[in-house]
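Good day; I would like, with your permission, to put a structural problem before you. What I wish to show you is a protein chain and, alongside it, a tokenised description of its three-dimensional fold. Please examine both parts with care and let me know of anything in them that strikes you as inconsistent. Thank you for your consideration; the sequence and its tokens are set out here:

***
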Amino acid sequence: MRKGPGLSALSRQSIYTSSYSTLSSSISTSQITSLQSSLESFRELLIEFSMKHKKDIKDDPAFRHQFQKMCSSLGIDPLVGSSRSSGSGGVWGMLGISEFEYELCVQLVDVCVSSRGQNGGLIRLDEVIRRVERLRSGGKDRSSITDVKGKTNEGDVTEQDILRCLKILEPLKSGYTVHTIQSTKYIRSVPSELNMDQSILLSIAATTGGRLNKREVRGQTGWGEDRINVGLRDCVMEHGLGWVDDQSFAFDHLSGSGVVENQIRGDVWIIAATNFEVV
């Protein structure tokens, strides 16, 4: 009869298992250390690249966007510092971009707050860029500014710059959010959310140049008169998103208002979706 393994065999097996475990742990630790070293080396090279092309990154919005995309694809946050950047704003901080972005945040808030009385806190993102660029150029449209060679300069603020600023503003919890409606981005700068009916009305307004006509709303939604009135009234009275066009209604001269007994009389213009230049 064959004997089973003795104590010495079990002891050797235990030693082998322990050795394999130690070797595996050693290899894993070595790999992690090597990976960390490689990442740190790459970060240092990235910093050298950013410093070499500092002017291009600051002055050229397209180059700046590509640099940001490169950092994002590699999982590197340019706002996070490394040993070389002393932890003060990371790569962006070394380039002076943090100062640029903080200034841009102030201008973004200025534009959103100053226009709330007209649009109820909802404004197209491209309109924000246009107004911010006017602030940065002393009240002139960027299209009217030419460089020393006589060429028209492109705007120095991009959509990606504004979206980064919105992320910076997130900790303030002041309600700055982005909504995409009919492929157009809008910035909502008040904490209140749009309900489903208001979102549908805004979507319709985006296809009509900003105008909401009861007949058109009914044709596209199938809503009844009461639901249309409530939706339009909320857009005008509750959120301030739109204005009533008195001239679009054969209007009772005694009423003096486009909202009579909670009924909207006349077309409503959603300012954020209206195609006109605000001076």
Q: What stands out?
A: Strands lie at 122-124, 177-181, 184-188, 211-212, 242-245, 259-260, 263-264, 267-270. Residues 81-88, 144-155, 251-257 have pLDDT under 50 and may be disordered. The two ends are 103 Å apart (CA to CA). DSSP finds eleven helices and eight strands in the chain.
